[in-house]
Design a protein that fits this description.
alpha/beta; Rossmann fold; 7-stranded mixed sheet; two-stranded antiparallel sheet; 20% strand
Length: 286
């Protein structure tokens, strides 16, 4: 094992995105992530994530339908190439659809509209949208609370915020430090990487579980930090590897607790889907 490998293993840092003193560091990190996305060529499946991909994704997406209604104004934050939008619009006659993404889609088709912007600063007037949808986005946002604040600002009274995301309440993100290299312990053992496999077992079975337990206990006490991983694996891997760019270990309890505490016009919420890999959360504004 090289000294550089051990330094990479030990170099992991979470910081709260709510604390003002962390803002300069996180602003620089946000720029680094933007540069990563600008320079890293995504494979087609990543750009075209939609209703027709993995089985567990299709399951949660199908449960979104009751929250859409004909004539609604729908904003999708993190719309990729608009494939999901086409699926929604084919089922519901929405009054207006707009998608927000960091980069322009491959093509634009009526009645779909696309806006290039970040989730931290949504360029829309207040109380403008009936439904705001984000799917597998918030775990990639450096300032998750900014996204929630902005979504709440532009959501009309009586509107619904829908968040679909991986559930990292109990397990690690692929971007976190798990051993010396990417991959599962079993595969590492097959290749004779004994130390790497042992560190992987330690990380998955003890270290990350302790981190998650501490975080769940803090959330029960009403302490929200929106921790952000400032050294995700995507910076150390060539090309693009799925979810190794996730930076926020999202769980619905933190989102719910934050909105209940910070938004006086919070009305109601429900977790309409949850399994070991993902959740779907619907929050209504009074």
């Amino acid at each position: 094992m090289s000294a550089q490998a051990m330094r990479n293993y030990e170099k992991e840092r979470y910081i709260s995105s709510l604390l003002l003193e962390n803002r300069p560091v996180l602003e620089r990190f946000h720029k680094a992530m933007f540069d990563y996305y600008s320079k890293t060529p995504y494979p087609d499946w990543a750009r075209e994530a939609c209703f027709h991909t993995q089985q567990d994704v299709r399951e949660v997406q199908s449960k979104l339908y009751p929250y859409f209604s004909s004539g609604a104004r729908l904003l999708e934050v993190g719309c990729a190439d608009g494939t999901t939008a086409k699926e929604i619009v084919s089922h519901f006659k929405v009054n207006l659809y707009a998608g927000v993404n960091l980069f322009p889609p491959k093509s634009v088709e009526d009645p779909l509209q696309f806006v290039i912007a970040t989730a931290h600063a949504l360029p829309f007037r207040s109380n403008a949208w009936d439904v705001i949808l984000s799917m597998f986005l918030i775990e990639h946002i450096v300032f998750p609370s900014f996204f929630l604040d902005e979504s709440w600002r532009i959501l009309r009274p009586g509107g619904c915020l829908l968040v679909v995301a991986p559930d990292f309440s109990f397990h690690a993100m692929p971007s976190e430090r798990i051993g010396l290299s990417y991959g599962c312990g079993r595969e590492k053992l097959k290749h004779g990487k004994l130390l790497d496999a042992l560190l992987t077992a330690y990380d998955t079975r003890l270290r990350v579980r302790l981190i998650r337990t501490f975080r769940r206990n803090s959330l029960r006490q009403g302490v929200f930090s929106f921790p952000v991983l400032t050294n995700p694996r995507c910076f150390r891997l060539p090309g693009f590897t799925s979810d190794c760019d996730a930076v926020y270990p999202v769980c619905p309890e933190e989102i719910l607790g934050y909105l209940r505490k910070e938004k006086p016009d919070f009305d109601s919420a429900e977790i309409f889907h949850r399994n070991r890999s993902s959740f779907g959360l619907a929050v209504r504004k009074r």
